[in-house]
Amino acid sequence: MSVIALPQELSTVAGAPMSYWRTVAWRLSRDRATLVAGALLLVIALSAMLAPWIAPYDPSAGSIRLRLAPVGTPSHVLGTDEQGRDMLSRLLWGGRMTLVAGLTPVVVAFLVGTVLGVMAGYAGGLVNTLVMRTMDIFYAFPAVLLAIAISGALGPGLPNTLISLSIVFIPRVVRVAESATVQVKGLEYVAAAKASGASVWQILRHHLLANILGPVLVFASTQVSLSILGLGVTPPSAEWGLMLNTLRQSIYVNAVVPALPGLAIFVTSMAFNLVSDGLRDAMEIRA
Predict the structure, then answer these.
(1) H or E stretch covering 34
(2) How far separated are the first and last CA of the chain, in Å rounded?
């Protein structure tokens, strides 16, 4: 297996040698910004998962009498939306669909894109040309416009939206994985593994994947904020992007309540970006 040289102060803790991933974990544990962002994401995820038990109201039940009630209204801490539905309940329930819509395409793109990128980078030649030129076709279009076009062609609905976003993200991950694979493939220890008779699978598993998963994972995590678009979600579903869209006309009546879904998207996106930056810094270990 490949060995990554570590700085002296990071290579041992309490006299015991540290592996690469233990060193990454050690560095993350001392990054306060990343820890705070990770804790915030955990709170958001738990709040969304526990929404059926902690949400005070049915997110779809509204009251015309309480339309756009301000923040701090008795029994409605965060006010109500344009149909009199409790905003706290809708934000909690909306987090479930928003996180699913945000994470699913990224996970699919990470898995599929890594496989295609490693295959193209390691095989080279015709395989690389076919894979990368095909990816370039999709990569040539702006991500948001391409996602909207594919989603429109597939039809409405969250599953089709997830498919369209996955298709948009895969070429980006493939390019990063292919570039990292080409760089690692040319290193001496890979040539030594080939000379020693190691199989392709052994080289991929022990040498290539161990060294490219870091940058690919970091890049994939940066795409989460781009996937929180609210595409394909239809009313009265609670989803932050959709809530922000339906409340935009109400900003002239009550400026605070319509901003709450946008604030939730902003905080979640910032937390993901901070975690991504922390992972990148922790994984960039140089001798």
Answers:
(1) helix 32-49
(2) 18
